[in-house]
Amino acid sequence: MDKINFSTPSGFPEFLPGEKRLEQHLMDTIRRVYESYGFTPIETPAVERLEVLQAKGNQGDNIIYGLQPMLPPNRQAERDEAGKGDTGSEARALKFDQTVPLAAYIARHLNDLQFPFARYQMDLVFRGERAKDGRYRQFRQCDIDVVGRKELSLLYDAQMPAIIAEIFSQLNIGDFLIRINNRKVLTGFFDSLGVSPDRIKICINIIDTLEKVGVAKVLAGLATQGLSPEQSQQVIDFIKIEGNVDGVLTTLNDFATKLPDADRFKLGIEELTTVINGVRDLGVPANCYCIDLSIARGLDYYTGTVYETTLIGHEALGSICSGGRYEELVGTFIGESMPGVGISIGLTRLIYRLLKANILQPLAATPTQVMVLNLQADLMPVYLQVSQQLRQAGIKVATAFDKRPLKKQFALADKQGITFCVVIGEEEAANQQCILKNMTNGEQVVVSIEDLATEVKQRLG
User: Fold this and answer.
1) What is the distance between the alpha carbons of residues 216 and 251, in angstroms, rounded to a whole number?
2) Sheet containing 92-94, strands listed edge to edge, beginning at the edge strand earlier in sequence
3) Percentage above 70 pLDDT, the chain
């Protein structure tokens, strides 16, 4: 028999128990914040029609995974029929993000939803990009979006930084900075330079690579789109405008008085001002956000506000949360104006980066707080009853069913990070007592079985 290669496919991560528990802890925190702002959960299929996923183009450099059925030998005759069924409008692929499937979801359930519709989703997505350090072909995204019919208040845009700030404050991973911009500001600036509309999106995508490739390559890229060296330098100077939010807005308004064809530029400033004022009113600390005119977001569907969040002191980790406003994505499917705004946390990538930087550590391999040890087989009914008593008090318990030397049972509990062990021998059982051992400091106390749950909960804090 040929040896089977059972290693994980490249780019498809697999967590050890402590890492998976860390992911669940982060998801629980994110979920609590999302729901505190009124977002409701949904789930969309992992597979969508290919034409749905490509409705707004192939979305930056994302490579979509297409699907074809693998027929067993006894069904080879169906190959031609199956092949025909998976071409054209029936071709299927794995979703590469949550936003395009959300648009299709809304189109499918338009008459069953209330608007503005605010949802969150924490699903796996798939991208056929080259797997490399910290970048995966399968990863979990934790998204929220709000979609309106015909109109959507810019205060929803302002609410996103408040949500981001609350999440990362609760995750306690260090200082962070939410960088905010508006693509209309960038688009309007290119308008004023006389760049043709078909080249503006390309130019914005080039700007979006600034932090990865540097100024020289951005200048070279802008030159390929027909910008003169003087125009390209103007772009660099513009996106490098810095200062506090009021100072940047003042500078932008000064620009607006001097630029030709500045209508879109002025609209972008107006929207950006509204968002910044809303962020202030929501109480987001001033040191947690700024205006960064270089933020563009590469996906073609963003049309207004855009966000990227970085960890201060760990900027090399890249964006840990990003998103923005889109005006036309949902309308692509139903022919109606349905603006939306959302953010996404690439949780799998984030966990990898934070673990590698020692900002976070894996949790204990098990959620178990107490292990009830097995000293003798005839006392198993007592061990089971005590275990259930603790569980009914809300304590996480593992019962040792296999009899091993006491030393090995203690060692197993210690390796798994279990805080307490309960020891009940013949004498303790006769007296309705047990020994409670703290595995952290080695302390042992004798406790009545009746009071055991109370004692454990007090000691767990």
Assistant:
1) 25
2) 47-49, 92-94, 66-67
3) 95
DSSP classification of residue 348: H
Vertex 296 angle, CA 292 and 301, to 5°: 145
CB 339 within 8 A of CB 364: no
* Nearest-angstrom CA–CA distance, 289 and 38: 23
Helix (H) / strand (E) containing 178:
strand 176-182
Determine how many CB atoms are found less than 10 A away from the CB of residue 96.
23
Q: Are 16 and 345 in contact (CB under 8 A)?
A: no
> What local confidence, expressed as pLDDT, does residue 420 receive?
98
The pairing of strands 117-126 and 176-182 is unpaired
Do the Cβ atoms of 396 and 368 come closer than 8 Å? yes
C-alpha to C-alpha distances, 399 to 25, 234, 402, 418, 440, nearest whole angstrom: 24, 69, 9, 12, 19
CA separation for the pair 335, 123 (Å, rounded): 27
391: which DSSP letter? H
Name the pTM for this structure.
0.89
Among 201-205, 358-362, 395-399, where is mean pLDDT lowest? 201-205
Contacts 24+ apart (CB under 8 A), 169-172: 170/29, 170/32, 170/33, 171/26, 171/29
Mean pLDDT of all residues belonging to the chain: 91
What is the SS3 assignment for 212?
helix
- DSSP codes joined into one string, 311-349: ETT-GGG--SEEEEEESSTTHHHHSS---EEEEEEEHHH
Cα–chain center distance at 257: 40
Q: Which two tokens stand for residue 31?
A: 């979920």
For residue 274, the surrounding DSSP H or E stretch is: helix 263-281
3-class state of residue 203 by DSSP: helix
Considering only CA atoms, which of 176, 134, 139 is closest in space to residue 355?
A: 134
The residue to which tokens 């966990």 are assigned: 351
- The span from the CA of 182 to the CA of 200, in Å, is 14
Closest Cα partner for 66 from 125, 124, 128, 10?
Answer: 128
Q: How many CA atoms lie within 13 A of 453 on its CB side?
A: 14
